[in-house]
Amino acid sequence: MINEYKYESKMKLELDGGMDGDKQITKSKTYGNIKPDTDNEKFYQVAGSISGLQSLPVLKVKRIEEIELEEEE
């Protein structure tokens, strides 16, 4: 049996860096040390608050989970 341990979440904001011809340029900022048990509603609310502080428009909000897998003996 494999056990999983969530030990950190990260928030990644993908930002609109404009266009290069017909290609979208994206930039990103990642924020770490988010408690893994934070529910998605609160996570998104915080992302909205941080978005207001960015100089570029936010295209996407992503949640990155870091999970350690360990085999049970």
From TrEMBL:
UniProt domain DUF1659: residue ranges: 3-71
Superkingdom to which the source organism belongs: Bacteria
Descriptive protein name: DUF1659 domain-containing protein
